[in-house]
Amino acid sequence: MLSILSIGDVAEKVDLNPSTLRFYEKMSLIPKPLRIGGQRRYESNVIGRIELIKIAQRAGFRISEIQFLLNGFDSDVPPSDRWKAMAVNKRMELEEKILQIRTMQNVLENSLNCNCLSWDECFKNIQLSMEVKNDI
After folding, report:
1. Residues 4, 67, 98, CA angle at the centre, nearest 5°?
2. What is the pLDDT of residues 37-59, one digit of tens each?
3. Which of 86, 63, 62 minimizes the C-alpha distance to 73?
4. Is the whole model's pTM more than 0.90, yes or no?
5. Quick one: pLDDT at residue 132?
6. Would you tell me which of 42, 104, 110, 123 could form a disulfide with 33, CB atoms 3.0–4.6 Å apart?
7. Which CATH number is 42's domain given?
8. Which domain, by its residues, includes 35?
9. Which PROSITE patterns does UniProt cross-reference here (predicted)?
10. Which residues of 88-125 are buried (b: 16+ CB within 10 A; e: fewer)?
11. Nearest alpha carbon to residue 9 among 52, 44, 33
12. pLDDT by residue (tens digit) across 60-90?
């Protein structure tokens, strides 16, 4: 049998603010709780769902992606298949970001050697040094 927890109890167990739980509820990430005397009362199994949300956030998933992960698939699609489908897309997104960050690092690295007196000269030197680096 599931135990019933107050919003404060759940927040403490998952190390989040009660306002975060209310936000998750509003965004349909967690089920609407029972109301007893006007106060939210959650079933204890909500803790596992919140921990999953936290893991997904650490993996870089946005709230909208987590919503889709939890609620956007047909009910007959197992959680592992949902996670794999979402993880493949997220991994490709991260690879693109890694390339973007490397490009940014190269631009900054090349600009640190700049002693130019004008923006035009500076731009040309940075661009030239990047072309040389890309050819290597």
Report:
1. 125
2. 999 999 999 999 999 999 999 99
3. 86
4. no
5. 61
6. 42
7. 1.10.1660.10
8. 1-72
9. HTH_MERR_2 (PS50937)
10. eebeeeeeeeeeeeeeeeeeeebeeeeeeeeeeeeeeb
11. 44
12. 999 999 999 999 999 999 999 999 999 999 9
Please state, in angstroms and as integers, the Cα–Cα distance from residue 125 to each residue in 15, 62, 104, following that order: 51, 39, 16
Q: How far apart are CA 88 and CA 2, in angstroms?
A: 34
> Is 136's pLDDT higher than 60?
no
Q: 28 near 64, Cβ under 8 Å?
A: no
Cβ atoms within 10 Å of 33's Cβ, excluding its own: 20
**Residue 37 domain-assigned (yes or no):** yes
Side-by-side strand order, sheet with 4-6: 4-6, 39-43, 34-36
Neighbour tally for 77: CB within 10 Å: 11
Return d(Cα 46, Cα 54) in angstroms, integer. 12
